[in-house]
Amino acid sequence: MYSRHTWVGSVARHLLLLLAIAFAVFPFLWVLSASFNATDSMQFQKLIPPTPTVSHYQELFGERYKFGIWLWNSVKISLITSTFVVALTALAAYSFSRFRFKGRRVGLLGLLLVQMFPQMLAVVALYVLLLTMGQFFPFAGMNTHTGLILIYLGGAMGFNTWLMKGYFDTIPRSLEESAKVDGATPFQAFVKIILPLVRPILATIFVLTFISIYSDFLIASVVLRTADQQTIPVGLRVLISDQYGSRWAVFAAGAVISALPFLGVFIVAQRYLVSGLTRGGVKE
Amino acid sequence: MRDSFVLRNSLKILGLGLLCALAIYAASSLFVSGSYLLAALPLISAGIITYIFLSKRRYPIRWLVPGLLFLFVMVLYPIGYTFLGSLTNLGTGHMLSKGQAIEQLVGRTYAPPGAERYAYTAFRNPAGEFVFLLQGRDTVLVVGGEGETITLPDARVVDEDGDGQPDRALDAHRLEVREIIALLPTLQEVRIVYAGVTLGIDSLTEFRVQMSKYAYDETTETMTDLENGTAYTAVQGIFTSAAGEEIYPGYRVWIGFTNYVRLVSSSAISGPFARVFAWTIAFAVLSVLLSFTLGLGLAILLNDPHLRARTIYRVLVILPYAIPSFMTILVWRGMLNQNFGVLNQMLMSMFGAGARVPWLTDPWVAKAACILVNLWLGYPYMMIVALGALQSIPHELYEASHVDGASRWQQFRKITLPMLLMPLAPLLIGSFAFNFNNFNLIYLLTGGTPPVPGTQTPAGATDILLTYTYRLSFEGQRGNQLGLACAVSVVIFLVIATISAINFRMTGTLEELSKNV
To answer: Could you give the CA distance from residue B185 to residue B272 in angstroms, rounded to a whole number?
Structure first.
């Protein structure tokens, strides 16, 4: 399909790609530049800040905004949720992969079907459920992180279990069988032998969950009502709330920082991600 | 070995015992509050879990219990609730069960005109119990809800600093005004029985005789206002008088398919609903088509082995995928701002002041803006999957067709596109389903605005079904219509289920899976 380029073709290609890159990169450059511009207003921003300053970052973590709290809330909620999701799915996937039992096939297909209905569609029910729960268990009611995490854990199974089960299937059973001969219980064999071998898929699911929880706006905005409890997406939206004339630079600084944990997790786990997704997806 | 067996088993029994205790606690509190059906849930699930953990045959299920528990409580129960909720009038003023509403109303009191008033001094002892000194027709000392007549000075009431105001009563210290204000919600619950009447706090400084406001007659289902004798009958989840007066709170009742009927036939609701529905589909289709086209175009360009600096291009073009979308959507919202946004400023400097595009305020331009931003967010994913699929197309096909004299365009039409669409079709359908419910994009970019004038429900020009249910549920100007929102959710469920069914049918996923699991 591809042949050597004439110089016209070559220039045309590079021009097209440069255009695409301008489209892709401009918003990042613009928001990065805004965060270092001295002006608060979007109107007077220059792409290359005439007098670069970090004052907006200082302001962000100062008294006036609760950005530090939001960042901590977001990271905390995402980390705890991802950890539990990995644990829950690993247990379920192991059972589906290693044992043969009544209801196994129905269970697997059921998970696939349930997965079709995004949890956010039932947001009204979740809202009422949390209101009710809060009357008996105030620590897990409305406006609590525990309540929010419990909701998120409901979405843990489904696709993740399938992905992980596919990966478990590629690990030979003989490994655990030899351990069982030595007197290990199935749980010991699972923890000591299998888990270390399936680290790539654990990392994959951890990262995928982290990313989706970290970006969730809908459920977090319904559950978390006060500024002290909110996560970054909810908080940032309230912070900017259309005050592009006066809070743009502070918002930009917040946006830049909020991208960092996301980017960090993405980069650290990248090598696991590729091998985890490909190996789990391929049937042997 | 034997010790660890005993230890493990006793731990297990202990854990199950704790679980059952917790379940019984939850069930009994739910039962007391009148949610009889809900009360059965913790009992049943605790029972099932205990069985699974004690039965040897159910060993494999034990591994699934933690995940399934959350799945049932946080996904399946809410889905069921949504279906049932769509058949009720759930919403502002209709959140309680009938029993709870009646209990609240019957508990209300009123102060009859000319009723006895008592000035009070409130005390609180270290254990947190209140003692009141009431001064009116009589002087009364109240401990634990019952009053007794006393004459001051009384040995139990001490004025320590001699300013004429008592400082201590029994072991309790006087509350300052600011403490009373802080405790007001608790104090308002206090009822004192003295001389055959009930007293309650009426203002910051006074107790007053309180009488029950409503009486409920179960046989006739009427609520009677004891103050003026008006009778209210239960109509559609609210007590209503003959004159049409309603008393809140109302309660939940089954209203059958009324919500669905309203969606299709009530003129004030069905018009906006149909518009939102059509736009949701248009938005999802256009988003998928455009981002696939751009992604594929870039993939073809970047797959070219003769291209220099391919890797740098790839990394830079994928960038929108590696940053959280909630943040970039908010940034786009700023860039598209009509007055200060960088896009309009650039356009105006190029084409003059007339080029001030109403990006987010004109109904049609705002729709285009939603698709533009979603294109920006969506094409990197399409490019990644297209790159993968392109590389799996056998090279020989191109060489053979080249020998036969096929043009580039023919190669693309007859080889590349069909070979790509086969593996990518499920991903495209999945992407359609995702965009059908792309809440973040619409809600954070436009919030569903610009508003459409003259609608009864909050349905803006860019609202998709999911943002519409959200706004019905939590942002209604005239109260939240949760029941109607549930009905819209069910409609979304049905659409998504249809799409998934088509997807499964096309790819044969289910057949293949049920053979291979």
So the answer is: 43
Cα separation, B15 vs B386, in Å, equals 51
- B258/B487 Cα distance (integer angstroms): 10
Interface test with A, best of B38, B61, B75, B372 (most A CBs within 10 A): B75
Is A24 in contact with B317 (Cβ distance < 8 A)?
yes
Among B1, B89, B4, B76, which Cα is nearest to B41's?
Answer: B76
A248:B341 CB<8 A: no
Q: Are strands B109-110 and B206-212 parallel, antiparallel or unpaired?
A: antiparallel
CA atoms within 13 A on the CB side of B470: 24
Q: Does A238 touch chain B (CB under 8 A)?
A: no
Q: Which of residues 52-81 of A touch B (CB under 8 A)?
A: none
Q: Which two tokens stand for residue B437?
A: 């419910």
Asked if residue B168 lies in contact with residue B157, where contact means CB atoms within 8 angstroms, the answer is yes
Give the model confidence (pLDDT) of B107-163 as tens digits.
888 888 877 888 888 888 888 888 888 888 878 888 777 777 887 777 788 887 777
Q: What are the angstrom distances between the C-alpha of B488 and each of A112, A219, B454?
A: 23, 17, 20
Determine whether B97 is exposed, middle or buried from the number of CB atoms within 10 Å of its CB (0-12, 13-18, 19+): middle
Q: How far is B177 from chain A (nearest CA, A)?
A: 28
Is the ipTM, as predicted for this complex, more than 0.90?
A: no
Partners of residue B192 on adjacent β-strands? B199
- Look at strands B238-241 and B191-194 and give their pairing: unpaired
Phi-psi sector, B20: left (phi>0), alpha (psi -120 to 50), beta = alpha
In order, the DSSP letters of B124-147 are: E-TTS-EEEEEESSSEEEEETTEE
Task: Give the angle B501-A159-A229 at the CA atoms, nearest 5°.
Answer: 115
Q: CA-based Rg of chain A, rounded to a whole angstrom?
A: 24
B 161-190: CB under 8 A from A: none
* B22 phi, psi to nearest 5 deg: -60, -45
- Tell me the per-residue pLDDT of B232-281, one tens digit each, with 9 for 90 and over: 988 888 888 888 888 888 888 888 898 899 888 887 788 888 999 999 99
Distance between CA atoms of B361 and B337, rounded to whole angstroms? 9
Strand B146-150 relative to strand B157-158, pairing: unpaired
DSSP 8-class letter at A139: G
Distance CA B449, CA B458 (A): 10
CB atoms within 10 A of CB A264: 10
Range B390-398 average pLDDT: 86
User: B200-228 b/e with 16+ CB inside 10 Å = b?
Assistant: bbbeeeebbbbeebbebeeeeeebbbeee
Query: Among candidates A167, A149, A162, A170, which has minimal Cα distance to A110?
Result: A162
Res. B400: pLDDT tops 60: yes
The residue assigned the tokens 């003769």 is: B306
